[in-house]
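Fig. S4 source data, part A: sequence.
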Amino acid sequence: MALQKTARILREKIIGISSEYRYSDDIPTKQVVENNSSEFFFPRTSGVVTAIAAPASLKVEFEGNGGHAGAVLMPYRNDAGLAAAELALAVEKHVLESESIDTVGTVGILELHPGAINSIPSKSHLEIDTRDIDEARRNTVIKKIQESANTIARKRKVKLTEFKIVNQDPPALSDKLVIKKMAEASTELNLSHKMMISRAYHDSLFMARISPMGMIFIPCYKGYSHKPEEYSSPEDMSNGVKVLSLTLAKLSLD
């Protein structure tokens, strides 16, 4: 009972409601919504995360024959760098073949050895990230990437020395009750809300395996993330905290 009373008080503080209670059953008999026009700004919104996309990471290595950039003629080259470049384009091709906006693929690391302007690459190393809210569709992309890696190696007469799936995690679905309470909290705070899929990796992906999970997003400047220009206003951060606090209060009363 003490916890429920605390949650109700917290709820009032967050959304600006003063209440008079009949303590026999804790039902409010009077509610006055205090409007503070200075808090209204645009956009007033929150993101209610419905699911976290399933991520997978791949490591790929090709080995060819090096040599001097001027001494080895083009017909006689076994260029590991070009094999890597071709595979990078194949990643993009296979992702787009899914015809889903939720399928993404990125070659975030591409290294050439020995790494000199006048030396034909004898080895290449790629690290590939692919994600999708649909696990089977993502796995199809991985299979196609592996098939392309083998095809490219044969065509360019280089060796595919490594094709390793580093991780292949399933997607995580947010708890339906948590989603409902986050949406309700946003509405009570006069915030619009948008149902969203998170395509970024979060600890919640793993917490969902052991407990109900939910996440709240707030607006960022131009949607930027993981770059220096990333910025959220103090107002948006404050609104995010309010939505989170009110959601927790609601869940404690459920």
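Fig. S4 source data, part B ends here. Confidence is low (pLDDT under 50) at residues 17-43.
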